[in-house]
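Predicting holo structure, iron/sulfur cluster bound.
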Amino acid sequence: MNTRLCLSEARAALQAGMELNVRFNYTAANVDSFADVLREFENLSVAEKDRLTVDYQPVWQDGTRPEADAKAERQAERYSACGLHMAENKTISPTHCYADFKNSIVINYTGDLYKCTAREFHPQLRESVLSPDGQLLWNSRYRKRMAIKHGTPLCHACRIFPLCHGGCSQTKLERAVSDVCYYQYSEVDKDALLRRRGEWILRHPEVSY
Ligand code: SF4
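Done. Tokens:
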């Protein structure tokens, strides 16, 4: 069931035995405001905290993603430290975005083809068109996406590359090639990400990837 509750109702629901997911749709501009919510939940019992999952989801269209992601991760650490459970961090996961796969295509009603569903379907952002005989005519934007999707040498040498991939192919398309970490993670941040990932795996033994 997908229902929106205010914080006092959420506390009451947890105390009544319901399982809840608290979701933060974050940008760099709003992520700090979610820290206050922690105060509402830090005094819950262990059993109540066990029924609560905190889920940080980036606003994909936001242009401040690296900064926002790093802030969200540091905040998630504080939630975790007070005994609350974090949802799987989709930006740190072995799974790749569907836009990275050759066999994933978004077909607009105009016949223009795209890869990413988190961007406007402007004709200048299309990556292919359907020819009258049904061929997919991929353009240079698509070829660039496929060429850079595996990341930079810096990312290849990074110890969390199998989880991070240096971001999705869309973020790689939109940023300048760089020799610094896209997410601006320190080694301490990476330790925190690995710990959070490990804790999530331990709570989800049914997940096999
Ligand atoms: S260097 Fe940064 S962006 Fe690249 S894989 Fe490592 S954490 Fe991810």
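DSSP finds nine helices and seven strands in the chain.
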